[in-house]
Amino acid sequence: MPDDRPTTAAQDSAGSLARAGDGAALARALFDSLRRLSFDGVGITRASYDAGEGAAHEFIAAEARKAGFAVARDRAANLVIELPGSEPGRPVVATGSHLDSVPQGGNFDGAAGVVAGFVALSRIKAAGITPRRTIRLYGIRGEESAWFGKAYLGSSALFGRLDPLDLERRHRDTGKPLATYMEAAGADIVAIASGEPLARAEDFAAFVEVHIEQGPVLVDRALPVGIVTGIRGYVRHLKIVCHGEAGHSGAIPRWLRHDSVLAVADVLMRLDEHWRVLMERGIDLVITSGIFTTDPSRHAMSRIPGEVEFSLEFRSLSLDTLETFHRLVQTECDVVAKTRGVRFEFDRRVFAVPERIGERWIEHLDALAKRLEIPTCRMPSGPGHDAAIFLGAGVPSAMIFIRNAHGSHNPREAMAIEDFMRGVDLLQAALLDPAA
Amino acid sequence: MPDDRPTTAAQDSAGSLARAGDGAALARALFDSLRRLSFDGVGITRASYDAGEGAAHEFIAAEARKAGFAVARDRAANLVIELPGSEPGRPVVATGSHLDSVPQGGNFDGAAGVVAGFVALSRIKAAGITPRRTIRLYGIRGEESAWFGKAYLGSSALFGRLDPLDLERRHRDTGKPLATYMEAAGADIVAIASGEPLARAEDFAAFVEVHIEQGPVLVDRALPVGIVTGIRGYVRHLKIVCHGEAGHSGAIPRWLRHDSVLAVADVLMRLDEHWRVLMERGIDLVITSGIFTTDPSRHAMSRIPGEVEFSLEFRSLSLDTLETFHRLVQTECDVVAKTRGVRFEFDRRVFAVPERIGERWIEHLDALAKRLEIPTCRMPSGPGHDAAIFLGAGVPSAMIFIRNAHGSHNPREAMAIEDFMRGVDLLQAALLDPAA
């Protein structure tokens, strides 16, 4: 069922639902309110460090206070909600996700992880359970790159990993720098600019993030929940230019052609065949050429295309695979350049390391899911997440995916509350009983 | 040597050079004057049925009168220059080409055929030779499609083969209809609109057109002159759309992808492989996908491309090859659609039949070239020419190509006068001694 069925729960105080521990009703109420707060006429807009994200933070903070939780803001302006444990000196078990969205995005991307934590904490509290470790729920700032051209701003700032130059990045609409926005949201901009870690890995026993799956795998496999094995790294070339030679399509025979479209098609088919073979060997990899264009100012049906621009991105859980495949790309381009008389010009590659989730956490979530009779599968995450920043900082982290149709970053996201609640069940078990 | 070396010949009366029979000097003078008449600051512009073409017609007509030829305009406003034969009742031997150009084009495309005819006639006259058949030189109107969106206007009108609807076609700059332009140039627009043939195939013993090669074959083979075996027909699809499914590049594994870029690359590589095999069997074919674009308003590096638009054109001297290859295109698209889960949407195909040059004429030109010790090869023409209209109307026709670098439809055309004169030698022999 979609989450937007008519509900009276939203009219109720979410706080009372939280106190009652009615998870599904609470989740619906929270999602409905978030949707109302940030509906833009088409989808959901919660701009990072801006009004939309701010309203979501205010709303969740207020509901958390009503539900009796300790609420604070950390020095990176992230929202922090805590359920104190019986041994408060010990590293905390953390959960959460981001509350911002892309323009005209969906209501669940990010918010599902915050709502999942909220529901889990509320049920633990309602059941009268006091966990050993303090459980901390984050509403993380600025995860989406849509607004300032860079992702994971809030979690990166938390671990002192935001490049000072990034503070100069301009908001896509207003042109004002990120620093101004962060400061207005209450962040300690001086500490962040200096690279001071505002939290240490040792403060955390774990970080477990719930997120909707942004692909079709769980829908295809008919499973409500996925256990994430890692976040794929990538190699990207935004612009590779293939230089051939233009000419009259009728007048130049095959052996005198330097056709850039056929050359790039040749490269892509060679890479596609490598991909197929690597998949058969169980090697994690995805390849995409999202941009492929002849020059609109010069191309024509009867003109042999002299130039093509294309992008190439490949992702993998394995650093080795990324490096090996990158060499393969260059080798195949060299071969095609020779055989077809063209030249490839590469821009600087953009690189992100893969972040693997520890085998202990994966096995632990497998075991908890089995005990709770939640059907799951293991799967990589293609898109990046705040959990990758926690992993990179040295925090033992895990991720739980919820089945979702139609991808993300669009208003057609479709997550059933029933699936969501199975994810919450798994999260709750993990928060109370984290991997050793 | 390029033709634009400093020359005093242009300052001389071309008429006196014509009378003297100095072919190379006459050719240089005529080309220089044509260039000066139609230089646009970048290249050559001689708009069809407009000022540029008109000036070229006036100039050639005036020079022909000075040289003592009979000059007239036919009912399609084509320029007609004649050297009367001793048996005037017999079908004429015709030559010529067009005098218009694309915007910012080169000086030789078209004009070379008129100048070649002019030089040949002048030398025959200067040598005091009276041919048996009247030799007729055409300055044909409106060959380039650049101005009214359709090619071969003057030759089509001549044979009553201009679609009346084409008379409504608008000039690319002024928006005025072709009919207005043709009428102003002196054409019998009523007869043309009615489809009345203004000339009959029986009036002609032959039509022999000299033209620069618009491809690199003669340069590559180091030959000054080519003997054309036919004008390739074509099948064109200006816009084929491949519909796949967009998605997050990181989140969708290979087996759930419907990647339109890879699908089209797959089709093109299959066609390229068929092309390679057909070439090895000696089958005439060229294939071009000149336009290939993901949607600029939606494509992105991290977005699996949901849609690609591409063009596809293939040309051949053989109607059978065109039809067979068209079926092959559809078969390969069907296979790829199934294996990659995409859909291809074809626009209506545009079709032009191949026009083969008769074996008699090809063999005759081979023999004449051998006698004159002109190195030649046989080759197809990719681009269309007025000769194809003469062929289509039933006139035994032939074509002679002159070596030319850098293609055509640009100011960088590079034809040496030495090569041109060898073409004129061959033309002259053919006009005096046409194939039986």
Write a short abstract of this structure.
2 copies of one chain form a homodimer. With 436 residues, chain A is α+β, with helices and mostly antiparallel strands.
Give descriptors for this structure.
homodimer, 13 helices, six-stranded antiparallel sheet, Alpha-Beta Plaits, Aminopeptidase, 436 residues, nine-stranded mixed sheet
Oligomer: homodimer
- CA-to-CA gap between the ends of chain A? 36 Å
Proportion in helices of chain A: 25-40%
Number of spatially distinct domains of chain A: 2
- What is the CATH top level name of the largest domain in chain A? Alpha Beta
Strand content of chain A: 15-25%
What is the SS-derived class of chain A?
A: alpha+beta
How many individual helices of chain A?
Answer: 13
Provide the CATH superfamily of the largest domain in chain A: Zn peptidases
CATH topology of the largest domain in chain A: Aminopeptidase
| Number of beta-strand segments of chain A | 17
- Any idea what the shape of chain A is? elongated
Ranges of chain A where pLDDT stays below 50 over 5 or more residues in a row are 1-11
Largest sheet features of chain A? 9 strands, mixed
The two chains with the largest interface, and their residue counts, are: A-B, 58 and 58 residues
* Helix and strand run of chain A: HHHEEEHEHHHEHEEEHEEEEHEEEHEHEH
